[in-house]
Amino acid sequence: MTGIIGNLEVNKTLIKQAADSGYAVATDLVDWLVRKLGLFFREAHHITGHISGIGRKKEMPS
């Protein structure tokens, strides 16, 4: 997991497009990671939880 998260580069433009497209809910993000990237559900859930945790630490709105 460290290999994925440690090298994660955030593309703010794509994230905004995804959020504007209705992918703002954590379950939607998990589903997208599974369908589009072919990740296993457990792995996608872990990544989504990690991303959510980063947002909470930075006091971003959920």
Automatic annotation (TrEMBL):
Q: Which SUPFAM superfamilies match?
A: L-aspartase-like (SSF48557)
Question: Has the keyword Lyase been applied to this entry?
Answer: yes
Q: Which residues form the Argininosuccinate lyase C-terminal domain?
A: 23-52
Ordered alphabetically, the record's keywords are:
Lyase
In its keyword annotation, does this UniProt entry include Transferase?
A: no
The EC designation for this entry is 4.3.2.1
User: Which terms in the Gene Ontology molecular function aspect does this entry carry?
Assistant: argininosuccinate lyase activity
Enzymatic class: lyase
Specify the superkingdom. Bacteria
Q: Which InterPro entries match?
A: Arg_succ_lyase_C, L-Aspartase-like
* UniProt-recorded name of the protein: Argininosuccinate lyase
Q: Which organism is it from?
A: Bartonella schoenbuchensis (strain DSM 13525 / NCTC 13165 / R1)
